[in-house]
Design a protein that fits this description.
This protein is α/β, with parallel strands linked by helices. It has two domains: 78 residues, 5' to 3' exonuclease, C-terminal subdomain (DNA polymerase, domain 1, Orthogonal Bundle), CATH 1.10.150.20; 245 residues, Rossmann fold, CATH 3.40.50. Helices cover 42% and strands 19% of the residues. The protein contains 14 helices and 13 strands. The strands form three sheets. The chain has a nine-stranded mixed β-sheet, with helices on both faces. Helix 8 packs across helix 9 and helix 11 runs parallel beside helix 13.
């Protein structure tokens, strides 16, 4: 073959269109990932490309028992097939128009939350026993089933109960207080309750919620964890276990964040408190979980008892709301203005 012929062949190769590989859209299309590995990944909570793309190689090695080189390759392919770029503020504003606000039944309390408990966010309520945390959880679970035009979400509420606080009788009371003609059984059918026996079980239940939404078609609009830190506090005692506890708690919170963000679900968690004896001025009450819970919660509300049977809610932290207080009452129908 002459030099001229070789040159012509090279030009023809350069002129040929670049062969683009088929875009990977699911885990089973990832090269080198078989059915057994996919099953292990699914069991560990890695059910889509986004969960793979944001994972670390070490996490995938532990979850699917694959080599570190394979894990890095899989993560790189997942990231290359997802549009993980910056978005303009205008696009984000349009996305926020899809957010729903779940009413509490009290206009004052709704005003504190900026119109109601927000979807695609984690709302944390902390306070002493009897401050109304679990009552608010029951109210939100009930009102979640209501149609959107009545201040609800028209969907299903998932209630992860860690302290045995859920009472179906209370739901029946609230339904009758909201609408006498409503069927309480219909509301109870749309509230899915699971009793978490320990912290690992609690984390597993949170992982299973995404499966309810994606594979079983359940219209989940609200996730409640009552309480978030109870098992972690009981199982990890002493300073020597603090780092491990905070790591697990951080992982659990990130599972809830992903759930809220991807599926536009409202997440409401209650939190226990402790007293700081070294604090001489102000309220010594402090939430459990430290910065891990504080930084991962979108809205933080402090609940306490007020005068004459009232409750006081104080917005401690919010990205778009001012620090404020709201006074409300708890009765058989749920929550109302004081």
């Amino acid at each position: 073959m002459t030099k001229k012929q070789k040159g012509d062949n090279m030009e023809q190769e350069l002129e040929q269109p670049e062969v683009v590989e088929k875009k990977v859209q699911s885990l089973d299309q990832l090269p080198g990932v078989g059915p057994a590995t996919i099953e292990k990944l699914n069991n560990a909570g890695y059910t889509d490309l986004m969960s793979i793309a944001v994972a670390t190689p070490g996490e995938l090695v532990g979850a699917a028992e694959m080599s570190e080189a394979t894990a890095k390759k899989v993560i790189a392919i997942a990231r290359a097939n997802l549009e993980m770029n910056f978005e303009s503020g205008e696009v984000l504003l349009q996305k926020r128009e899809q957010i729903t606000k779940l009413s509490t039944g009290s206009e004052e309390l709704d005003k504190l939350f900026g119109g109601g408990v927000e979807s695609a966010a984690i709302t944390e309520a902390f306070g002493q026993y009897g401050s109304g945390k679990s009552q608010l959880a029951h109210v939100l679970a009930t009102r979640c089933v209501l149609p959107v035009d009545k201040g609800g979400a028209g969907g299903v509420a998932v209630f992860i109960d860690t302290e045995g606080t859920f009472r179906p009788e209370r739901i029946v009371q609230m339904v009758k207080g909201i609408d006498k003609d409503a069927d309480p059984q219909e509301f109870l059918r749309n509230i899915k309750v699971a009793r978490a026996l320990n912290s690992d079980h609690q984390m597993l239940l949170a992982d299973k919620i995404a499966d309810l939404i994606k594979n079983k078609g359940v219209n989940v609009k609200l996730v409640i964890v009552d309480s978030l830190t109870s098992h972690f506090r009981a199982e990890y005692i002493g300073r020597g276990t603090l780092a491990e506890r905070q790591q697990k708690l951080n992982k659990h919170m990130h599972t809830l964040i992903r759930l809220a963000d991807r599926h536009n679900v409202a997440v409401y968690v209650t939190n226990q408190v402790m007293s700081k004896p070294d604090m001489f001025f102000g309220d010594p009450t402090q939430a459990i979980g430290g910065h891990v819970v504080g930084h991962n919660s979108t809205y933080r509300v402090y609940l306490r008892r007020g005068k004459k049977g009232t409750r006081v809610a104080k917005m401690i932290d919010a990205p778009n709301l001012a620090e404020d207080e709201a006074v409300f009452m708890i009765d058989e129908a749920g929550i109302r203005n004081a």
